[in-house]
C-alpha cells in the first residue's frame, strides 16, 4: 500500500469501508484515507482525528487502577478536609458504571451505588489534558456535560462536585436539573443545591472504561453461582515454574479464578442447579508440562477440574494483562461447560464457546468472512454469537444439550433453529459480506 505510514506497520486501531471506494483507517490520534482502486493512501494524510471527526476523540482517558503511582494527567476533581487531592475514578458493576473518588496513597475507589458508599479495588482512573470548567448547575450546557458513567437502567451519568464534610467531593448527576450524588462517610448523599457541574471545552464522547476493568468486574447475577462455580480454588506452583511472575496488577489468582468462573456461569446458565458438579473445585497448577506445551489446558474429573498453566504465560518481564485475562476466560470456561457430550464436532463447539465467553468479556465484535466452523475457536465463537442473537437463548440451550452425554450430536443445532448447521453457516457468512453504507455510528 503506497503512502501508508511506516510507524503504523505494527497495527491499527480500526478501519471502515465507506462504501465509495475509500477506506478510513485510524490509529492513535490520526487517520488516513485509503483509495482501494489505486491501492494507495490519498495525499495530505495522515491527518489528526480531532480536526476532521468532531466528537470522535475522547475528552477523558481511562487507565486501569489501582496504580503504583497516580498516572500522568490524572483528573483532580476535589479535596479532602485535610487538603489531600481527590482524583476521579470509575467502577463497573454489572451494566452500570459508577464514577467515584480515589487518592494517590490509597488503592481503592469509593463510589455511591445510590444506597451507600461502596469501596472497590477494581476500577479505572480518569486522565485528561484538556481544561475542565466548573459551573453552577443552572449555567451548564447539556452538550458540554462530561459523561463519566452509566446507570443500571442505561441513563448517562455526568460529572459534578459538591462541598461536604469540609471537603469537595466528586459525584454524578443525570441532568442539570437533578441532584449531585456523592459518597461520604459510608453513605450516599444527593445534594440538590450548592454544587458545581463539570463543563467541557468541546462536546465530549461517552465514557470508555478499560477492558481490564470490565474483565475483572462481576457480571449481573454472577453472585448466585458462588457456591457451585470455583467455590474452592487451590493454587500449586511446581518447582520448575518458581521463576514465573504472576502479574502484580491483577487480583490474587484465587479471587481472579472465582470471578472469571462465576462470570462464565452467569453467561451459560440460568441457575446454580444447572451447573455440573466438577465446576465447584478448581486446582490451578503452574508447571511446564512435558506432555502438553499449550499455554494452558483443562482436565475435567467427576468432582473437580485441573487448570494447568504454562509458566511462559507469566513472563519475568511484565506481560499484557488483557491477553492473560483472555486466556484465563477461555480456559476457565472449560471448567464450567457441560462436558458429557462426545462425538464428532464436540471439540469445535467446545473451543468456540470458550472463545465466545472470552470475546464477550473483551467486548470484541470483529469477525470476518471465511474460516470453518468445524475448526472451532474464533470462527465458531462469532458464529455461535450470531446464532445466539438470532435464536433466543441458543447459547444456553446448546450448552444444556451437552448434558445428555454420548447421545449428543450436531443435529441439536437443527432442533434449536430448524435449520442444518451448514446452511446456517452460509447465512452467517453472507451476512458478513454486506458492506455498511454509513459507518458514523460505529466510529462514534
Describe this structure in words.
Helix 3 packs across helix 4 (321-336) and helix 4 packs across helix 5. The strands form four sheets. Strands 6, 7, 8, 9, 10, 11 and 12 form a seven-stranded antiparallel beta sheet that branches. Strands 13, 14, 15, 16, 17, 18 and 19 form a seven-stranded antiparallel beta sheet that branches. Mean pLDDT is 86; it is low at 435-444. The chain has four domains: 6-52, no CATH class; 61-209, no CATH class; 218-336, no CATH class; 350-444, no CATH class. Strand 17 (180-184) and strand 18 form a beta hairpin. It is α+β, with helices and mostly antiparallel strands. It has helices at residues 49-52, 211-216, 253-268, 321-336, 346-361, 377-390, 394-401, 411-417, 421-432, 440-443, and strands spanning 14-17, 22-27, 30-35, 40-41, 47-48, 61-65, 76-79, 85-93, 96-102, 109-112, 117-120, 123-127, 133-136, 147-150, 156-164, 167-173, 180-184, 187-191, 195-199, 232-237, 281-286, 296-300, 305-309.
Amino acid at each position: 500500500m503506497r503512502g501508508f505510514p511506516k510507524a503504523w506497520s505494527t497495527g491499527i486501531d480500526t478501519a471502515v469501508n465507506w462504501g465509495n471506494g475509500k477506506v478510513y483507517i485510524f490509529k492513535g490520534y490520526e487517520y488516513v484515507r485509503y483509495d482501494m482502486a489505486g491501492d494507495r493512501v490519498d495525499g495530505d494524510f495522515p491527518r489528526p482525528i480531532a480536526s476532521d471527526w468532531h466528537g470522535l476523540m475522547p475528552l477523558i482517558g481511562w487507565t486501569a487502577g489501582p496504580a503504583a503511582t497516580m498516572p500522568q494527567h490524572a483528573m483532580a476533581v476535589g479535596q479532602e478536609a485535610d487538603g489531600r487531592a481527590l482524583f476521579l475514578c470509575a467502577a463497573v458493576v454489572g451494566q452500570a458504571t459508577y464514577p467515584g473518588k480515589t487518592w494517590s496513597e490509597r488503592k481503592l475507589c469509593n463510589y455511591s451505588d445510590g444506597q451507600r458508599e461502596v469501596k472497590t479495588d477494581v476500577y479505572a482512573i480518569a486522565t485528561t489534558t484538556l481544561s475542565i470548567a466548573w459551573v453552577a448547575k443552572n449555567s451548564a450546557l447539556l452538550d458540554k456535560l462530561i459523561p463519566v458513567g452509566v446507570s443500571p437502567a442505561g441513563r448517562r451519568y455526568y460529572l459534578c462536585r459538591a462541598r461536604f464534610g469540609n471537603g469537595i467531593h466528586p459525584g454524578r448527576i443525570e441532568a442539570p436539573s437533578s441532584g449531585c450524588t456523592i459518597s461520604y462517610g459510608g453513605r450516599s448523599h444527593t445534594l440538590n443545591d450548592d454544587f458545581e457541574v463539570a463543563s467541557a471545552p468541546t462536546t465530549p464522547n461517552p465514557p470508555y472504561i478499560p477492558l481490564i476493568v470490565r474483565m475483572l468486574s462481576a457480571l449481573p447475577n454472577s453472585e448466585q453461582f458462588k457456591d457451585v462455580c470455583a467455590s474452592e480454588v487451590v493454587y500449586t506452583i511446581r518447582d520448575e515454574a518458581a521463576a514465573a511472575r504472576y502479574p502484580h496488577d491483577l487480583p490474587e489468582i484465587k479471587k481472579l479464578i472465582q470471578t472469571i468462573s462465576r462470570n462464565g456461569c452467569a453467561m451459560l446458565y440460568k441457575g446454580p442447579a444447572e451447573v455440573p458438579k466438577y465446576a465447584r473445585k478448581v486446582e490451578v497448577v503452574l508447571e511446564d508440562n512435558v506432555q502438553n506445551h499449550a499455554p494452558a489446558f483443562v482436565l475435567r474429573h467427576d468432582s473437580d477440574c485441573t487448570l494447568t498453566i504454562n509458566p511462559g504465560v507469566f513472563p519475568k518481564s511484565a506481560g499484557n494483562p488483557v491477553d492473560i485475562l483472555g486466556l484465563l476466560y477461555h480456559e476457565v470456561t472449560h471448567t464450567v461447560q457441560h462436558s458429557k457430550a462426545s462425538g464428532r464436532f464436540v471439540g469445535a463447539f467446545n473451543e468456540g464457546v470458550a472463545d465466545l465467553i472470552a470475546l464477550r468479556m473483551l467486548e470484541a465484535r470483529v469477525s470476518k468472512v471465511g474460516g470453518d466452523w468445524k475448526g472451532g475457536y474464533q470462527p465458531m465463537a462469532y458464529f455461535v454469537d450470531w446464532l445466539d442473537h438470532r435464536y433466543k437463548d441458543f447459547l444456553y440451550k446448546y450448552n444444556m444439550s451437552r448434558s445428555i452425554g454420548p447421545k449428543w450430536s450436531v443435529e441439536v443445532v437443527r432442533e434449536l433453529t430448524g435449520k442444518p448447521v451448514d446452511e446456517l453457516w452460509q447465512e452467517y457468512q453472507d451476512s458478513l459480506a454486506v458492506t455498511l453504507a454509513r459507518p458514523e455510528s460505529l466510529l462514534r
